[in-house]
């Protein structure tokens, strides 16, 4: 079989697996497709980053094709996210919503996963995507709270990292519950200081 035949097999299997409206996740679908009854992916599929990327891509591609098919057949809306994949019959798309161009504009992930050229993403590119993902997971973007956090510390820009640290220590000591201070105010001060640190505002 060629690549497109393999994708059609995956789509057919997923259609039969999801048609009854059961809720599942992307990880569970990978594991299900690894089982002997399906034998689509081997046991190494989850152990190598490039193989895992391609397994996930093929599943997502098949899911988005299935979504378009079920929309056109008015069977319902296929909800697609990493943790929640489910056919919702009550959310059937209207005829006006079935135009492919409108659907693609509404869902950039659909555009990405329907483009089979993205399946050829290199190992280096996959590793870079993973690295960027973990950086985002480790460090949320707190920069949008900067002004509010400085206000919580009774400061206003421009201000140096040294001034922030000194003000934090002063306010934390003043409002510490063990010194008879307000515990809520103490938590606000601490949270503001930690966010400023996470946003790299303080070295």
Description:
By secondary structure, the chain is mainly alpha-helical. The chain folds into two domains: 123 residues; 56 residues, Helix Hairpins (Orthogonal Bundle). It contains nine helices and two strands. It has a two-stranded antiparallel sheet with strand order 1-2. Strand 1 and strand 2 form a beta hairpin. Helix 1 crosses helix 3 and helix 8 packs antiparallel against helix 9. The longest helix has 24 residues. The protein is elongated. It starts with a helix and ends in a 5-residue tail after the last helix.
State the gist of this model.
The chain is mostly helical. It has nine helices and two strands.
Task: Say how many strands there are.
Answer: 2
**Low-confidence runs of at least 5 consecutive residues:** 93-99
Distance separating the two termini? 57 Å
Strand order of the largest sheet: 1-2
Strand content of the residues, in percent?
under 5%
Which properties best describe this structure?
single chain; 203 residues; mainly alpha; 2 domains; 9 helices; elongated
What is the topological layout?
Blueprint lengths: L2 H16 L7 H9 L14 H24 L4 E4 L4 E4 L11 H7 L1 H7 L8 H16 L7 H7 L8 H15 L7 H16 L5
Antiparallel strand pairs: 1-2
